[in-house]
Amino acid sequence: MESTTLGRSAIRGVFYSQWAYWISLGMAAYGGVFVPRGSVRDILILTPVLTELFCVLSTYWLYRACDEYLRLRLLKAAAVTGIIIAFCTLAGFFLVLFGQPPVSMVWINLLGWTVFNLQLLHVVSSD
Question: I need a labelling partner for 19 at 20 to 30 A (CA). Which of 36, 45, 109, 124 fits?
Fold first, then answer.
């Protein structure tokens, strides 16, 4: 039986996709405030969508390159992330009912991607 081991390229792919997402998100936040309205600002604000697609594609590539055991662990990581996002969304809803200002879904999205990618790095590095 042949064992599939993931090298440093898998860890680098996950790390760089997350890094690109955070950098593009920072640029979009900066561009939304300081760049005047126009097509350049619109493109700058939409840049995180492309890097998020890069995150999804690198995760899919990693999923396809793994054996069944690692695929199961990746699916568990996705399930845990979904539970965390659902809990945070529900908690935000109840906080709004109690009079707190609403929490932006951008923050919950950032939390979800960060939690998932940290779990992904843990799964890949423990292989």
Answer: 36
The per-residue DSSP string of 38-106 comes to SHHHHHHHHHHHHHHHHHHHHHHHHHHHS-HHHHHHHHHHHHHHHHHHHHHHHHHHHHHHTTPPPPPHH
* Amino acid residing at 64: R
Distance CA 43, CA 45 (A): 5
Q: How many angstroms separate the CA atoms of 13 and 27, rounded? A: 21
Amino acid at 42: D
What pTM value is reported for the model?
A: 0.72
Note the pLDDT of residue 79.
Answer: 95
Upper half-sphere CA count for residue 123 (Cβ side, 13 Å): 24
Name the nearest CA neighbour of 123 among 84, 83, 85, 80.
80
pLDDT the model gives residue 84: 93
